Structure formats: C-alpha cells, structure tokens
Amino acid sequence: MNIDQMDYNCRLDPYNYDDEIKFHIDNGDINREDLIDFLSEGRISTKQFINYIEYGGFEDE
Fold first, then answer.
1. CA dist 6 to 13, 34, 38, Å?
2. How far is it, in rounded angstroms, from Cα 25 to Cα 53?
3. What span, in angstroms and rounded, lies between the C-alpha atoms of 52 and 43?
4. Rounded distance, CA 34 to CA 31, Å?
5. Is 40 helix (H, G, I), strand (E, B) or coil?
6. Which of 13, 44, 11 lies closest to 30 in space, CA to CA?
7. How many CA atoms lie within 13 A of 55 on its CB side?
C-alpha cells in the first residue's frame, strides 16, 4: 500500500492542531489561559491539554 506521507499525517491530525498549537506556543501567541479555553470549548482533548502545558512549560503558572 502506497500512501503519501502528508495524506497519512492529515488522517491522524486532520486539523493539524499539534503542529499549529506548538508553533504558536513557541512564538508566545498561546498561553495557559488560551489552552484552558481550547479545552473547555472541546477543541483539544485532556491529553493534548496536558501535553501542551508540559511542552510550553506552563506547569508552574
């Protein structure tokens, strides 16, 4: 089976949230409160929330 890598990645993360959110965390565009909003709106899962908090170093806030 020959599947294009981008097509495969899009199936795993159709909205490309992981890369997009990490990019904005790195640039300082997203903070802990934004992640809480995303979680409460159902845009990210609890597991993603925890991963992004750890990734951004927001544990101590």
1. 10, 28, 25
2. 10
3. 13
4. 5
5. helix
6. 44
7. 19
